[in-house]
Amino acid sequence: MLLALALFAASGSFDAHWQQIGPSPRPLQLNDLPIPGRRKPAPQGGDEADASAPAPAKRDRLSDCLSVGRDNPALAESLAEHWLAEVKVGSERVRANQCLGLMRSQQGNYDGAYAAFTEAVGLIPPAQAAGAVPLMAMAGNAALAAGKPQDALTWLDRALIVHDFADNAALGAVQTDRARALVALGRNADAAKALGEAHRLAPEDPEGWLLSATLARRDKDLATAQHDIEEAARLDPRNAAVGVEAGVIAMLGNREDAARQSWQSVVATAPGSDEARTAQGYLAQIGAGPSGVDRGQPAPTSGAASLPRGTSGDTTR
After folding, report:
1. Which tens digits make up the pLDDT trace of 52-84?
2. Who contacts 8 (Cβ-Cβ below 8 Å, separation ≥6)?
3. pTM value?
């Protein structure tokens, strides 16, 4: 059966992974931010033993805020807001805004997260710009999720020109987000270059390979798409989004059995997920295989991109 997918329909449902921004999957490390050295407390009473004794550990409000946010982001957001209202010191306001932005992002308030992250960056001295890169990346990430791709690109480009930041995995993630912003701006060729940089910086990141496979498939380069989706699957074999995309690429290559196998695997390994519902919709459209068995238990296909009969190169949108 020669079938082809109507990709990137008006609903855009099939390429949702281009829009899955939200909180970064790479949690920010506490020591990524510049924390100016605190003065050591003066020894009391002039006793040398007392002077050499370690100072009592000071509670870390950022750690506390993030810890609360793991279970109750709304409460952590309130704590961060109270923290901001109490402090005037720039370094403390940076840390309070970091927690505030993360908690707002976790709750889907991306405009609010963007405001918190950008304020935090503005409080970091230019001499400590390398320590601000993670927050610049978060600002870009939040702007992208808020539907502001040009603002996102501005922040992500700014993060890339900072000297003395040597975390290649983080820089690869910045390039991946740049690719998302560039696609949103209709600059697919530039997005492909950004993803090439992401592969160079972070070759073991499956997300970058998934996005480059999707982009190559959109540009009808099925050979590159197949290579890149195989890399994504090798690195993250249980990723449901990878399985759905692998099925699409297989379908466009007239490999219906491979597509069915990919989608059935998604349904089996990620039941109840958005990807499983998408896979079920496609399974319903192609029907059971030669054996007459379709373990996908397809759901109604409302909202899913259709599977019109055509040629393998048909990528009608």
Report:
1. 555 555 678 899 999 999 999 999 999 999 999
2. 14, 15, 218, 305, 315, 317
3. 0.75
